[in-house]
Amino acid sequence: MEASAGKMPHPPPKPHSRLPHEGRTAMNRTAYLPTPGTHADWKLEQPYRARHLLIALALLAALLYTGQRTEMDQMVAMTGQAVGKLLGLSPESQVLRGLSRVAESMWPPALGEREEVARLPGLDREHLPMFSHIEVLENREQRLDAQSLQWATKVVRTEYLVKPVGYLWTVFVKMVETVEIAIWGTLLSVLLSIPLACLAARNYTPNRLTYTLARGSISLLRSAPELIVALFLVLAYGFGPIAGVLALSLHAAGFLGKFYAEDIENADNKPQEALEAIGAGKLKTLWYGVLPQVLPQYTAYTLYILDRNVRMATVIGLVGAGGIGQELKGRFDMFQYGHVATILIAIFIVVFLLDQFSARVRARLL
Prior knowledge:
The chain has helices at 50-69, 72-87, 94-106, 166-200, 208-223, 226-237, 241-266, 269-277, 282-316, 324-333, 337-365, and strands at residues 113-116, 133-144, 151-163. β2 (133-144) and β3 (151-163) form a beta hairpin. The longest helix has 35 residues, at 166-200. It is built from 11 helices and 3 strands; from the N terminus they run αααβββαααααααα. The protein has 3 domains: 81-109, no CATH class; 113-163, no CATH class; 167-365, MetI-like fold (Orthogonal Bundle). α4 runs antiparallel to α9, α4 packs across α11 and α9 runs parallel beside α10 (324-333).
């Protein structure tokens, strides 16, 4: 026998081994590895078909149609003309002409203020505001002499109270008010969104009715822009920060309620099941099993809303809801673009500092 001669029989061929995690194909059939040395004949299905091409063409046609209605073609042409002007390829550009005119009007930014002393009846000349001084300007004017009925040139002296950094202080006070509006709007939105989020989470809402009502309330709050809400609140509460705080808080509560509810639904179930197994109720399970998981995300959402509210507090101020927006609109309407430049620089500084603060807080929590 061959075995006695020291030769071992060839082992029988092994069955094809099955992939551990990819044992099912798209048709729910078992996939096997081919035997070494054999040729595997397989075919990869195309990820895109004719219907995908038709959908893409339909979307492209819709974009072209809406682009024509929104004057996207004109925007591209005017932007190209501006780029050509910068490169010396185009003789004129309406875009650059308008931007350069505005830029020249906004420079330099206004730092000081000047007020007529005659319009300040309570001014104490011995105790002027810090860094202020009185300046006298002389103007020559043509006036009709009542006795001789002849035009005569007279020198008119006007006193002004000059504050070299007075407008910087005004902008600072208004920016502080804007940040305060944003903080209070964010705080009220968090307080309003937490109960809405609990009722809008499928795994913690009491029943289908409360879930639907909570989701509907969140959608309603989110669908109303802050500017529109501020317009109505100004009519109700008058000009000032109250309307701004309420407008920001109502709109932001819609966003936070949606984000909070989705995180509650997606939280890991194992800690919740463990708490429920030892007899914890819904409230304790939510507090000890869900909140530690979602707290970093909640912090990130809240900081984003705070950053957004600082910017939106400027916008809603344009309709009289307090903050720097009111000052911005007033200076813009009076064509005082130097003051507008100062306000825009202040807004940029505040948003930049807030962004740095938010990044540090997120880095510590996440």
